[in-house]
Automatic annotation (TrEMBL):
One of its GO terms (cellular component) is endoplasmic reticulum. The keyword Coiled coil applies. The chain crosses the membrane at residues 292-310. Residues 5-86 form the SNARE-complex protein Syntaxin-18 N-terminal domain. Pfam families: Syntaxin-18_N. It is a single-pass type IV membrane protein. InterPro entries: SNARE, Syntaxin-18_N. It comes from the Eukaryota. This is Syntaxin 81 family protein. Keywords: Coiled coil, Membrane, Protein transport, Transmembrane, Transmembrane helix, Transport. The keyword Transmembrane applies. It is found in: Membrane. One of its GO terms (biological process) is retrograde vesicle-mediated transport, Golgi to endoplasmic reticulum.
Length: 311
């Protein structure tokens, strides 16, 4: 068995002598010799750069949510305007990441359409594996973004529930105060009814004060009822806003699923059309082969008869 010799040093010497003969200076020669030790990193494709950028955006979104989670959930740390600004920034983050993922999907679809042959059959197996790998990358990015979106929906639900719980006790206290004032007024009227006729003769100032108190109480009751109605409407609006956001999130997920099903249906339709073309071509080949076989048998039979007649 022949021994294997390492010719790496010989190759380096040959490269060094060739570089010296070509007139390379010491710096260029050192760079060439260093390239044998330190290899240059491979150039990343535009898809890989875009995917890494999207991953960094999703990571930045997650860090932003972890940083402002307590500020968004705790009602005593920040104001409503600050929580609304946090929600708007997170929504903008999610929208930007979703657009980047859609761009990656479009690039994959374009590449997949360009790799198909004239019959729509994928010829290059290595390119097919690359496209499948890219689909997996996009799926992982979509799942990461969906998990972060689900966590933000939970935080938003906690915020809306705290807002609802904050308004419900206030409404109960207002109703209890109304009941107490009504009971006090009824007790006052009962006391006046049970007084003797001599005691019911009030002074003019007392009558005016009583009328002002009655009007003030009536206005207070009316304003309290209006306040209850406004608070109840506000609570319903908050609940409707939360339900609207949850519904929009589910509609977005269903839209993505419908789009995926549509793409699969289009792909299945193309495959059926290709299968029909292949079947029609097979039928044509079969009919032509039958015609050729019949023609061959006819010529062979005629040749045998001719040779028999000639002999």
């Amino acid at each position: 068995m022949a021994k294997i010799r390492d010719r790496t040093e010989d190759f380096k010497d040959a490269v060094r002598h060739t570089a010296v003969s070509l007139g390379y200076n010491e710096s260029k020669l050192a760079a060439i010799m260093a390239s044998f030790i330190i290899h240059k990193p491979r150039q990343r494709s535009p898809f890989t750069k875009a995917a890494l950028k999207t991953l960094e955006s999703i990571g930045a979104l997650e860090q932003f949510m972890l940083k402002h989670r307590k500020d968004y959930v705790d009602l005593h740390r920040t104001t409503e305007q600050e929580r609304d600004s946090i929600e708007q920034e997170v929504t903008a983050f999610i929208k930007a990441c979703k657009e980047q993922i859609d761009i990656l999907k479009d690039s994959i679809n374009d590449e997949e359409a360009n790799t198909k042959g004239w019959l729509g059959i994928k010829a290059d197996t290595s390119n097919t594996d690359t496209i499948a790998h890219k689909h997996g990358v996009v799926l992982i990015l979509s799942e990461n973004l969906h998990s972060i979106t689900a966590r933000f929906d939970q935080l938003r639900a906690i915020r809306f529930q705290d807002a609802i719980n904050k308004r419900i006790p206030r409404r109960k206290l207002n109703r209890a105060a109304n009941k107490n004032t009504s009971s006090v007024d009824s007790s006052k009227t009962n006391i006046l009814e049970f007084k003797e006729p001599d005691e019911i003769q009030p002074e003019p100032l007392g009558v005016q004060q009583q009328l002002l108190d009655d009007e003030t109480h009536a206005l207070q009751v009316e304003l309290t009822s209006l306040l209850d109605a406004v608070q109840e409407t506000e609570t319903k609006m908050v609940e409707m806003s939360a339900l609207n956001h949850l519904m929009s999130t589910h509609v977005l997920q269903q839209a993505q699923q419908i789009e995926l099903l549509y793409e699969q249906a289009v792909e299945a339709t193309k495959n059926v059309e290709l299968g029909n073309k292949e079947l029609s071509q097979a039928v044509q080949r079969n009919s032509s082969s039958r015609t050729f076989l019949l023609l061959f048998l006819f010529v062979l039979t005629f040749s045998i008869l001719f040779l028999d007649w000639y002999s």
